Amino acid sequence: MSAESGKIDPMHQFQVQTIWDGFQIGGHQIAFTNSAAWMCVTVVVLWIFMLGGMKRQVVPGRWQMMVETFTGFIDSLLMQNVGKAGRKYVPYVFSLFMFILFANLLGLLPLGVFGLHPFTFTSHFTVTGVLAIMSFSIVLIVGFWKHGFHFFSLFVPHGTPVWLLPVIPLIEFVSFMVRPFSLGLRLFVAMIAGHILLKVLAGFVINSANAGLLPGLGVGIPSFVLMVGVSALEILVAGIQAYVFALLTSLYINDAEHLH
User: Distance between CA 196 and CA 177 in Å, rounded?
Assistant: First the structure.
């Protein structure tokens, strides 16, 4: 935000800033950024969460029950969408789901009042795209490892009329190759849109309060109430987007396992 002009830039919150210059590899600067820092924070918080919930008590406490609820949820998700073969993918999908969930939630913390601004790295397509490519790579590896070149039969659905064979495989192939793009784009768009809206509403609150009593009452208060509602909605979106990412990953793995 510019103090002189009173304008708030809603895109400034997504700017990747260098914290440490790091080192060079092959003439390329490898720097430690605020995005990388919040990735590390997410991993540490997630590790603490899992460590506190893995006490294996006969009578589990609330923390242990919370961790077991999440693991049971992902296990049930894979069982429903992949079957028994999905059990071996539980560690990966669970890690993916929890990492995205914690990243989304940490980015919503109101730490700005303490001078610390959280960075939602899932609002960058470079991050969500890499996560999507990881899931897509597993699908390809599993598909070719288990089925060999028969994996290409995935592009010819059962019951396809003979006269459509020259067209349907091409359409299915394009649809298949678009999967990692759409998977990463969905999470990226959902997170960046909500944060931009919150920033715009915050600008309304600040500028109307600085403009005087009447604008503050007429614009600032409704904007603040709307901010609270949007913040609650963003918490819901944070969980939904993590779930959707895990769900689609399990569905894609099912295709690799069973060639449906």
Answer: 30
**Two tokens at 50?**
């899992």
**Is there a domain that residue 247 lies in?**
yes
Residue-number span of the structural domain to which 64 is assigned:
12-258
In tens, the pLDDT along 13-36 reads 788 888 887 777 777 777 888 899
1 found inside a domain: no
Residue 57 dihedral angles phi and psi, to the nearest 5°: -75, 145
CA distance 172 to 93: 25
Q: Distance between CA atoms of 259 and 153, rounded to whole angstroms?
A: 7
Is 0.85 surpassed by the pTM of this model?
A: yes
In a domain, 68, yes or no: yes
Q: Angle of helix 90-106 relative to helix 125-147, nearest 10 degrees?
A: 170
Whether 205 and 223 have beta carbons less than 8 Å apart is answered as yes
Nearest partner of 195 among 108, 109, 118, judged by Cα: 108
